[in-house]
Design goal:
The chain has 491 residues and is of the alpha+beta class. The protein is built from twelve helices and 26 strands. Strands 17, 18, 19, 23 and 24 form a five-stranded antiparallel β-sheet that branches. Strands 1, 2, 5 and 8 form a four-stranded mixed β-sheet that branches. It has a four-stranded antiparallel β-sheet with strand order 4-3-6-7, with no helix packed on it. The C terminus is likely disordered.
Length: 491
Amino acid sequence: MIFGVVVAEGRPVSGATVRIRGRRRSVKSDSQGAFALPWPTDIEHGLSLTASKAGYFIGGLPLRAKLKPGQNVGALRLEPLPTEDCARYSWVDPRPDLAANQNCGNCHLEIYDEWRLDAHSRSARNRRLLNLYDGSDWYGRPGKSWSLLDEHPHGAGVCTSCHAPTVEPDDAAFDDLRGVSGVGAQGVHCDLCHKIKNVSVEHAGLAHGRFGLEWLRPSAGQLFFGPLDDVDRGEDVYSALQSQSQFCASCHEGIVFGVPVYTTYSEWLASPARREGKQCQTCHMKPTGKFANFAPDAGGLQRDPLSLASHQFLPGGRETMLKQCLQLSVKPAPALEEFRVSVSLASHGIGHSVPTGFIDRHLVLLLEVHGAEEQRLFARSGSVLPAAAGPALADQAGLLFAKLLQDKAGRSPAPFWRAGVVATDTRLRPEQRIEQSWSFPPTARKLRVRLWYRRFWPEVSAVKGWPDDSLLVFDRRINIEPARANGAESK
């Protein structure tokens, strides 16, 4: 065994987690700060002991190669964290730059490459966001459809608090997101997330973005909160919060102007996934197994690849995740009098509604039926798509899965800053199954069922001139054998 004691400021520390760096096995220090760990057979390989506890930097102690079993290694010292957040702190730029040795991407290039392909890295510069923000279109022309600044300028800072949370409220860019520059323009970046000490959920949805976060920024040196408890560089702090859904709540729950615009966190709170112990990070930061070292060229430790979180946030891409969490089944039923088709769409293994996030995202299910001469056949019964689905799809057989807002004049869809009520919410809840049936003329010979994921409403997208970025999640084509009576084909 290896024996020792964890101390801080000359006093024993109880309840500290002690382990050999990079190993799974750990123990807790007792009321006197003492601990005992099994003897490592490979001690000659330059091992270190580490200790961590809330309120302290992670401490480390190299194990001497000549150490004997049963020997006491002495004191493993912990340094207390600063007691005050430094508002004058200069945020670290995530982008690789050898002239700036602190930049995150210099050492953590693989993580940086994952993050920069994700929406968090573009949250302050998203082109569609800015078009909605100032009323411009894809080409920068002003006065094109929805505009927050024109209709509700006093709410401009709400967007900045989540999309560029490191911009200070006394910065002119806070009330005009278009002026964000420097590190603030990197959106939700590395240093921001790794400075979060706590996230308030008491007022989740009402305290937006930065205003629901408790940062701990040092006045000197450096400090990083993270999910690993054995990083003993002298500036790292273990935080269990980094692996909990609460960490995401401040930006992914938002009631704006009285409208529930973002409800992902509250959806998770009510989900079976939460009751099963699954967190947001379980799916969105699931290890890919593609790398085993966070800093391979900067002295990083080789670890189990399945212990290192991914920073893709949508592993495999949005389309892959949608296909994983949705199940579509189609059952055609030809008959002499009519052709009936039943469709089932279910969500599974997911901790929020589908779709979630920004309020205008939606799913469109469309059924198309053709006869033997390729002529289009229209449904005799069953649900049809509303006008919100767009002029090309309205009144066709299908279903819309969306949270539709309605303004005070009854127009829908409406921007959240103009909305009076949530007219309908037909999104799929976690583990929910929707089944619908339609009937068509009995001359049906071809059936096509498609399911799209769309980020925005067609009528606004058209005026804004946005390129089509809808995702075709499912496309099922079925040839229909005609029904027969007494062995003869039905006429």
